[in-house]
Write a structure and sequence with these properties.
Oligomer: single chain
Distance between the termini: 18 Å
Order of helices and strands: EHEEEHEEEEEEHEHEHEEEEEEEH
Number of helices: 6
Low-confidence stretches: 305-315
Helix content: 10-25%
CATH superfamily of the largest domain: FAD/NAD(P)-binding domain
Length: about 325
C-alpha cells in the first residue's frame, strides 16, 4: 500500500463504510483500513432501530453496507493501523502492519472497545466465565445461571439474548436499569430475567471457571452471589489513541472533539462514530457524522490549499 489517496478512512464499521460510499459518490480517491469489516456492531444480534430496514440482523446490515461500498469501487483493506503522522509529501502518512498509506486527509472512524469492570478476578476468568459479548458467548450457558452487569439499553438487550439460553439471568445495575421502552417491556415480560438495582460487583470468584461474584451489599442473604458466568455491559472506551500524536483535541472521556461538520481542531483531520464526542451513540448517528465529514472533506480538497505542518521526525 504505497498509493496516495484523497481520504484515508481508519475504521471499517458502519461510520467508515458510510464514509466510503460518499467518497465514491463524490469521486474522492479513498481507502478504508480496519481490522474487521463491520466493526463492533457485528457483536450485536438483531438491529431494530436503523431507519428503513425494519428488523435486520447486524450481519445483514453490514453486508448491505459492504455491497454498496463495492458498487462505488472504494478500496477496503483488512489491516491494523499502528501510527498516523504528518508527512511533507502528502500531509499524512498512515503506517500499518502491512505497509504505508499516504493521504491528503484522514477520517478517524475507529469506534470503541468494551469498558471493563476493573475488579479482582475479571482478567483471570476472562473467557472462563467473564464475557463482553452475548451474541458470541451466550450459547455456552444453556440452562445455566448468568449475571449481566450494566444499567443501560445494551444491558437490557444482552439479558434478553442470554435468556434464550440460560435458566436464569440476573441484571445487576449500579443504579437502575434504563433502556428503550420496547426493550424494558420485554425485560419485564421475560420470566427468566430478574433485575437487581443499586448494587455494585466488587469482585469475581471462581475455581477453573467463574463460580460467583462479590457484591457491595447483601443480596439473597449474602454478599457472595453464585453464578456460572458474568457478562459485562457497562459502556465503551473510545479508540482515539491514534489521533493523539497529531495534536487532536480529546474531551475528558478521551473522545475526539468534533464540530457540526465532524472536523477536529487539526487541519485535514475529521472524526465520526463512537470515537467522536457526540452524546448519542447509535449506528445511524455515526453514519450521519461520517457523511457530513466526507462532504466537508470534499469542500476542503476542492476549495482550500492543503497545508502541511510537518511534525514527523522522518518527514
Amino acid at each position: 500500500m504505497g498509493d496516495k489517496y484523497d481520504v484515508a478512512i481508519i475504521g471499517s464499521g458502519v461510520a467508515g463504510l458510510a464514509a466510503a460510499v460518499y467518497c465514491g459518490r463524490l469521486g474522492l480517491n479513498a481507502i478504508v483500513i480496519g481490522k474487521e469489516k463491520g466493526g463492533t456492531i457485528l457483536k450485536t444480534d438483531i438491529i431494530e432501530n436503523y431507519p428503513g430496514t425494519g428488523t435486520i440482523s447486524a450481519q445483514k446490515l453490514i453486508d448491505n453496507f459492504l455491497k454498496h461500498t463495492v458498487e462505488y469501487g472504494v478500496e477496503i483493506k483488512n489491516d491494523f493501523v499502528e501510527k498516523v503522522s504528518w508527512s511533507k509529501r502528502s500531509c499524512f502518512s498512515i503506517k500499518t502492519k502491512k505497509g504505508k498509506v499516504s493521504s491528503k486527509t484522514v477520517l478517524f472512524a475507529t469506534g470503541s472497545a468494551w469498558k471493563k469492570l476493573g475488579v479482582v478476578g475479571e482478567e483471570e476468568y476472562r473467557n472462563k466465565g467473564v464475557h463482553y459479548c452475548a451474541l458470541c458467548d451466550a450459547p455456552l450457558y444453556k440452562n445455566k445461571v448468568v449475571v449481566v452487569v450494566g444499567g443501560g439499553d445494551a444491558a437490557a438487550k444482552e439479558s434478553l439474548l442470554i435468556a434464550k439460553y440460560a435458566r436464569k439471568v440476573y441484571v445487576m445495575a449500579r443504579h437502575s436499569l434504563k433502556g428503550e421502552g420496547v426493550n424494558m417491556e420485554r425485560v419485564k415480560k421475560e420470566k427468566k430475567i430478574e433485575v437487581i438495582e443499586n448494587v455494585n460487583v466488587k469482585g469475581i470468584k471462581g475455581d477453573k471457571f467463574v463460580t460467583g461474584v462479590v457484591l457491595d451489599k447483601v443480596v439473597g442473604g449474602s454478599k457472595e452471589f453464585k453464578t456460572d458466568a458474568v457478562f459485562v455491559d457497562i459502556g465503551h472506551v473510545p479508540l482515539s489513541s491514534l489521533a493523539v500524536p497529531l495534536g487532536v483535541k480529546l474531551n475528558r472521556k478521551k473522545e475526539i472533539a468534533i464540530n457540526k461538520e465532524s472536523k477536529t481542531n487539526i487541519i485535514g483531520v475529521w472524526a465520526a462514530g463512537d470515537v467522536a464526542d457526540t452524546k448519542f451513540k447509535q449506528a445511524i448517528t455515526g453514519v450521519g457524522e461520517a457523511v457530513k465529514a466526507i462532504y466537508s472533506i470534499y469542500e476542503y480538497l476542492n476549495g482550500e490549499s492543503v497545508l502541511c505542518n510537518c511534525v514527523d521526525e522522518n518527514c
